[in-house]
Design goal:
The chain is built from five helices and eight strands; from the N terminus they run αββααβββαβαββ. By secondary structure, it is an alpha+beta fold. The chain has an eight-stranded mixed sheet. The longest helix has 15 residues. The structure holds coenzyme A (COA).
């Protein structure tokens, strides 16, 4: 029974170029945090990873190649004012963190992770999603714009090092 549950938790969502994409499990979190520390300029406390895995596992996706985690996307959901409607609260997705090890970049893995995250957020009944992106990060802006996202506003000194962010939004 236990074995059956573990197999279910590791269900493959997609395969691409020798890598698999699946939902994150608690035993992946150490590797996910290591990738974040190594390959992203922005970090989170252990608590954030654990809570978001518990609350939004549908949109916490890892990429795995040769039995090693090589990247991930981590999301949250909240209720707040719509970025599209003039009034009313909606359920919103939030792409909190997206990182791929440098040696695996440029193979569309980032795009696939984001695509699978959007599917998970839709599954969680989100009406729209937002994310913050460093203003200097043209590549990631291009990646997100491929999904029909648009820039809503510039957030002054959003990052700890003082850099501004663009808040990007997408309607489902
Ligand atoms: C963001 C990240 C996950 C993208 O991973 P990736 O697998 O290399 O991206 P993809 O191959 O899926 O890119 C798809 C498209 O996005 C755009 N893109 C992604 N990264 C790019 C870059 N560095 N420069 C220019 N365009 C880029 C391109 O349009 C690309 O299309 P192309 O293949 O025709 O050039 C990776 O660069 C990363 O981990 N960066 C460090 C952490 C980070 O900045 N995270 C985002 C925080 S919001």
């Amino acid at each position: 029974m236990l074995q059956f549950q573990v197999v279910l938790m590791k269900e493959i969502l997609l395969e691409h170029n020798g890598s698999i994409f699946r939902r994150c499990t608690p035993s992946d979190l150490i590797a996910v945090k290591e990738i974040n520390m190594k390959a992203s300029p922005d970090h989170h406390s252990d608590y954030v990873y654990e809570v978001l895995l518990a609350e939004c596992s549908e949109a916490f996706i890892v990429a795995e190649k040769d039995d090693q985690i090589i990247g991930y996307v981590m999301c949250a959901t909240d209720f707040g004012y719509s970025n599209f409607k003039k009034s009313g609260l909606v359920k919103r997705g939030h792409i909190v963190s997206l990182t791929l090890l440098e040696e695996h970049r440029g193979n569309w893995y980032g795009k696939i992770l984001v695509d699978e995250a959007h599917k998970g957020l839709k599954e969680k009944q989100c009406d729209e999603t937002y994310m913050e992106v460093r203003c200097s990060n043209n590549g990631v802006l291009a990646l997100h714009q491929g999904f029909g996202t648009k820039i809503k506003q510039r957030l002054k000194s959003y990052y700890r090092d003082g850099e501004d962010a663009y808040k990007i939004i997408i309607k489902y």
